[in-house]
Amino acid sequence: MERKEPNQLEDTVKSLLEKRSMSLRTLGKQTGIDVASLSRMISGKQKANPDYLQRMAVELGVSSDELFRAAGFDVGGTIQRGSVNDSFDFLRELLNGQRFSKQEIEVELAKYEDYARTDEGTNLIVEKFPEKRQQVPGTGPFIEQLDDMYNSFLKSSSDEERCILGSGLLYFVLSTDIIPDYIFPIGYVDDALAIQLAWSRFSLIRRDLGEKE
């Protein structure tokens, strides 16, 4: 994941503050961020904190994407149907080195596979997925892959396929995310990676079946 140069966060924040006749000190109070830390971050002296950017976006009345891009994050590439490993590299950078691993998501998916085999797990997916799906704003590859997974889950008659697809859908539906969904837009990144991992396994199974036929 590449950052754009130069960092435009300072100009963007100053412009937004001016439009709202708001001072940096007021923004600090409203976001609960120390004004000195805020000043260092927007001037580029301190690495941009995703949580701070999200809080600032709320108070400044703009989408968090705008501040993420201004800070140098290539937000447009966060949730794509690309390499899973590339996505994890992006996530580590976005979270400023916070501990996060592919294995953590794989452990959760493995737990959900057994649950997806049960009638209770299946009913939960069918009942809760449409509602949770509506909470995800925007469009794009993540949404397309999410819908493809749900439709494939409903159509598949294979127990193995359904438990793999179901594990990804249960990760999305249940509120046990490694990154909370309310931290938008990055709150859905681990959901997207879980979907990618499950979909990759599903695709391998379908490919293997095709080669045997």
- Residue fraction in strands: under 5%
Give a quick account of the main beta sheet: strands, pairing sense, barrel closure: none
Structural class, from helix and strand content?
A: mainly alpha
Average residue-wise pLDDT: 76
Q: What is the helix content?
A: 55-70%
List the helices and strands in order. HHHHHHHHHHH
Q: Report, as a whole number of angstroms, the end-to-end distance.
A: 40 Å
The total count of strands amounts to 0
Q: Specify the number of helices.
A: 11
Q: How many domain units? A: 2
**What is the CA-based Rg, rounded?**
20 Å
How would you characterize the overall build of this protein?
- It is a single chain.
- The protein is mainly α.
- The protein folds into two domains: 9-76, lambda repressor-like DNA-binding domains (434 Repressor (Amino-terminal Domain), Orthogonal Bundle), CATH 1.10.260; 84-212, no CATH class.
- The protein has helices at 9-19, 24-31, 35-42, 50-60, 64-70, 84-94, 102-116, 119-134, 141-155, 159-173, 189-212.
- Helix 9 (141-155) crosses helix 11.
- It is elongated and about 60 Å long.
- Residues 1-5, 76-88, 94-99 and 178-187 have low confidence and may be disordered.
- Residues 13-67 form the HTH cro/C1-type domain.
- Keywords: Membrane, Transmembrane, Transmembrane helix.
- It comes from Alicyclobacillus ferrooxydans.
Provide a quick synopsis of the model:
The protein is mostly helical. Helices cover 66% and strands 0% of the residues.
